[in-house]
Amino acid sequence: MNRYTGRTLALETVMIAVGVLFAFPVYVLVNLAIRPTSDTSSPITPTTSPTLGNFTEAWREAGLGGALINSMLVTVASVAIVLAVSALAAYPLARSTARWSRGTFLLIMLGLILPFQLAALPLYQTVRDLGLLGSVWSLILFYAGLQVPFTTFLYAGFLRALPRDFEDAASIDGASQLATFRYVVFPMLKPITVTALVLNAVSIWNDFFTPLLYLSGSDQQTMPVAVAGFVGQFVSDWNLIFAALLISIVPVLAVYLALQRSIINGFAGGLKG
């Protein structure tokens, strides 16, 4: 039987302290977001008269409705394209032993090494020539290309850890490679798919530079750009600013909390590969 030792107590104490350290900024954010403007006490002091009026005012003043729709459209469309392309690309790269497979994989991995800022100007000119400046489709096109190398890397690592028994059985039964991937392999990729979904969604949702660059001069904006403009406009009203920030993080935080178990399983499977 394991005994509760002093070392266990010390470890639990350290973990609780770390948890409090990470939870403290969240507490301040929520406390200020629900605090009325008339309350001028310390941000650490819990508010005695919480209100939801800050959220409605921030929503109206910052125009978060349209920004939320744009962010959701860009994130969902980009992630769907990235997952489909990366999974289809990783499958032959992970299963083939030909020389071209390794070379192609290394070529794709160059996308992880080279920063996209090096191609910011040519990409901007290309988007301009395509007539997509000021449109959310420019962001979808950009993110779909930017996130594929990283997601392909995740899928390939996970696929190399999967046994081929089910694929061989499907092949013996006469299934094509595409049918084998669709009905046999892809369902087994659920853990890493969820992991890639959340990582890409968080990255795309929180990106500020690209929407600012491609949507400038138009009435289209995403949540980070809308909140940044709101901060500049209401720089002295921190209650409304924190309410807008809380609104902007709730959607992606909800997705992460709902899928966190699958995310952990995906990382564990990927690390085994």
Describe the model.
The two termini are 35 Å apart. The chain has helices at 6-33, 53-62, 64-95, 99-113, 120-129, 136-146, 148-160, 165-172, 177-188, 190-206, 209-214, 223-233, 238-258, 260-272. The protein has 273 residues and is mostly helical. Helices cover 76% and strands 0% of the residues. Helix 4 packs across helix 7 (148-160), helix 7 crosses helix 14 (260-272) and helix 12 packs antiparallel against helix 13. It is built from 14 helices and no strands. It folds into 2 domains: 6-51, no CATH class; 66-222 and 250-272, MetI-like fold (Orthogonal Bundle).
At the fold tier of CATH, the topology name of the largest domain is: MetI-like fold
In helices, the fraction of residues equals over 70%
General form: globular
User: What's the SSE pattern?
Assistant: HHHHHHHHHHHHHH
- Overall residue-averaged pLDDT value: 84
Summarize the topology.
Elements: H1 6-33, H2 53-62, H3 64-95, H4 99-113, H5 120-129, H6 136-146, H7 148-160, H8 165-172, H9 177-188, H10 190-206, H11 209-214, H12 223-233, H13 238-258, H14 260-272
Give a brief description.
With 273 residues, this protein is mainly α. It is built from 14 helices and no strands. The radius of gyration is 23 Å and the shape is globular.
Give keywords.
MetI-like fold, 273 residues, 2 domains, 14 helices, single chain, 76% helix, mainly alpha
